[in-house]
Amino acid sequence: MEPTLRDPTDPLIDHAEGQHFLNEAFKVIVEEVLCKGTDATQKVCEWKEPDELAVLLDLELREMGEPRGRLLQRVRDVAKFSVKTSHPRFFNQQFAGVDYHSLAGRFLTEALNTNLFTYEVAPVFVLMENEVLRSLRQLLGWTEGDGIFCPGGSMSNMYAINLARYRLFPEVKSQGLWSVPRLAIFTSPEVKITVSNSHYSVRKGAAFLGFGTDSLILVNVDDRGHMIPEDLDEKIELSKSQGVVPLLVSCTSGTTVQGAFDPLDQIADVCGKHKLWMHVDAAWGGSVLFSKQHRSLMKGIDRADSVAWNPHKMLLAGLQCSALLLKDTSQCHGANASYLFQQDKFYDVNLDVGDKSVQCSRKADCLKLWLMWKAIGSNGFEERVNKAFVLVRYLVDEMKNRDGFHLLNDPEFVNVCFWFIPPSLRGKEGNADYPSRLAKVAPVIKERMMKKGTLMVGYQPLGDKVNFFRVTVFSPLISHKDLDFFLDEIERLGINL
Amino acid sequence: MEPTLRDPTDPLIDHAEGQHFLNEAFKVIVEEVLCKGTDATQKVCEWKEPDELAVLLDLELREMGEPRGRLLQRVRDVAKFSVKTSHPRFFNQQFAGVDYHSLAGRFLTEALNTNLFTYEVAPVFVLMENEVLRSLRQLLGWTEGDGIFCPGGSMSNMYAINLARYRLFPEVKSQGLWSVPRLAIFTSPEVKITVSNSHYSVRKGAAFLGFGTDSLILVNVDDRGHMIPEDLDEKIELSKSQGVVPLLVSCTSGTTVQGAFDPLDQIADVCGKHKLWMHVDAAWGGSVLFSKQHRSLMKGIDRADSVAWNPHKMLLAGLQCSALLLKDTSQCHGANASYLFQQDKFYDVNLDVGDKSVQCSRKADCLKLWLMWKAIGSNGFEERVNKAFVLVRYLVDEMKNRDGFHLLNDPEFVNVCFWFIPPSLRGKEGNADYPSRLAKVAPVIKERMMKKGTLMVGYQPLGDKVNFFRVTVFSPLISHKDLDFFLDEIERLGINL
Ligand SMILES: Cc1ncc(COP(=O)(O)O)c(C=O)c1O
Ligand SMILES: Cc1ncc(COP(=O)(O)O)c(C=O)c1O
């Protein structure tokens, strides 16, 4: 499409040509991403060094456009060199797998290209978001409340902190933090000796919202990473005695690395006693609420003031889909921009939800979850959650049966943290250089798997624990044989270390 | 899909069945959204009252899933009752039209479902985002710098404010606003007599980031809505004399309602004199930089410290696509979560961009823009921008030729603000009840067009100006005949008022 002197009365886009391209691109997507990308006999990633990949992709943007064939090849290349996150051997992150109903919802959302702003411009999505949030709240045991979909769990956590601040000191919205006493946010440490607990977004949020990271008061955790309610109580008393006003507790249902669930009921008692806002970061763990068998992990959730829950993680809704759920219904983010939210409309302007958000344009993140939910029902989600726990049990049992796999501890959720001990290190636990040698194992296995393209799983150090793997097992696409492969492949990659 | 006692060794999702559904859904999307939805002979919206629509959509989420045919009908219903934002008669927002290359990029992004986090998990997108940001910075006239895609321009503006605060007082990240003097943010008023200027996100941002909305110091504007640099200078001096530290000026290139461009060069002089961070909110207007003919509207942009630019608006990249561009390269958002960003990787960990963001999961918003840019080149964007200005000129000339259309003023950009004066009010400007009667015209025309489904355009009051329409003319899909229709239809709808 070169710039030519076209008649300005003509549109610049040809629908037939455009739809033809879209059709061809759709076929490439199905073939490369959905067929090959989920086929266990194909690679999960096609590793290239950054410099090499940059050349292969020819990323530079130029003055002139390119012909259709070249563009389709670009679609194919992007697919080819991207990681196949739906692949049954992708265990690297807190998302994996693909749900086709959700994906159809995502395509539809993109094609409709609207903004969750007013009822007028997004009638379907305004009503649908309300209904989806209501259904999520129902799982928390709340009969009323509010909520909003945010661009990720980190933002959801920030909203909660901001709302808590507003509830306690509404003047902060106009006068700023200078007008209020120092405030404290209580959460568990991100890294403490052997465990990881609260997500780093609480810290980032404290900085972004102007509190500063020193406002975080870290509550002790037990050896499995659960916040200790008695210590919370003491820390609250202590900060009060120092003239700081305790604002909020952010506890976690399903920590990022180890999948620990904080004891919500006891924390709620402490919050009740001190009148603190209780926020639960259930970004990762919230989905257990679908399971009658496992939802007791979150006993006490009905007592929270706010909950962050990411259906884009365990539920496969696809990035981004994160709900902030609120028990209280008083708003704080409104800017009352009368040029955007006119009050003299011919319908109920309470449906103009845009002013609830600190965003202005906001993607419709509800349809994909809604369509998937319609397709499989709450029962379908329950089955998936239960299955994940069964698979984790299988994996853990297999690890215990094999030499060389050493668990950090018995998993509470679908995160399994373990070291692979290569033969050369077995029985050498007492040696002085054991930890430093073990620390080098995971990075090398990781490099090998990436270059071979057979598997993806992440590792990290944590406090005094040297690099270990964390595998997340929840994709409904996987089966025992994928877990067998997982273990075999780790052994193959690490046997000679 | 009912829950049955399935063998846990089996996957829960059937790819063949899933892909079949996706194929069928794709056909519905093409037919309903892309064919009918862009066909001028079809409705732009299918208005239903909220209660009625809720019943039609049967939104409730239940225990049991539904069969394929029912789900496809749901896809069709969502499409049917949603507003067709790509329709040539949709002038309601700062987005409109459809670009098929961008849309293909969006489908591919959704299917790949990744997270712009580390090179390991998003190799293509990490490199691509860098390149797209570099190309956008080049248009600003910068040879180096940094940047990030944010979930919307409001977030981009907040990032800029946060970075400015960090540059001036790095200790604020740990110690919070209590540790620093009161800070002031300068911007033009959102509503001032006849003009609208800065976007309300600056105000929301000031509240969210803990400054409070009182930290905003409103700079006077001329009668077209341009910030007056001399007044900025005086306001800065004044706040200094009051012991407040001036932090940042947020000026606007392309205001939301009227499309005004602030005089950047003169504002840069004032910022230089006082060492203030100069942020330019070019969310809406930034795209003029593609046009040799029109980019002088943003003369001085190279002197800014940060720029927010939304390709999801005028460039048709699709929601969400918003870049924050930074001249400085020092980072502030990092949380250094070692469990997420391991330092002992086998590639350059500077490519692990996740820690730049206050988000954790972050959608890949670059591919759609990149693919569209590859398809039409910078020249293609230039042609689209130039064409928009030509169409605006045509519309304005037509309005001047017709009775009953009264412009607020001659447009500087692609926003055209006007009143429709129905015959019964013509020549009655002197009457005491004229403003109150005129105020009622736009809402009634709006209601009629929505119920008829022929057109969508927004209205608002502004200061002492009663309700007027703002039409944005930039979709490359439209032509003179769509603008003729626009005027004819407004006349038809308002003639008897
Ligand atoms: C416990 C927890 N909270 C919050 C988040 C952040 O969610 P998001 O990635 O959507 O910002 C995560 C995800 O990594 C998480 O595991
Ligand atoms: C001038 C201006 N700035 C910022 C924004 C906010 O951008 P977004 O809607 O992406 O948050 C808008 C959009 O309405 C705008 O017009």
UniProtKB/TrEMBL annotation, chains A, B:
One of its GO terms (biological process) is carboxylic acid metabolic process. Its cofactor is pyridoxal 5'-phosphate. The gene is CSAD. Gene3D superfamilies: 3.90.1150.170, Type I PLP-dependent aspartate aminotransferase-like (Major domain). Keywords: Decarboxylase, Lyase, Pyridoxal phosphate. GO terms for molecular function: pyridoxal phosphate binding; sulfinoalanine decarboxylase activity. It holds the Pfam family Pyridoxal_deC. The modification N6-(pyridoxal phosphate)lysine is found at K313. Homodimer. It comes from the Eukaryota. InterPro entries: PyrdxlP-dep_de-COase, PyrdxlP-dep_Trfase, PyrdxlP-dep_Trfase_major, Pyridoxal-P_BS. The keyword Lyase applies. Belongs to the group II decarboxylase family. PROSITE patterns: DDC_GAD_HDC_YDC. GO terms for cellular component: cytoplasm. It comes from Nothobranchius furzeri. This is Cysteine sulfinic acid decarboxylase.
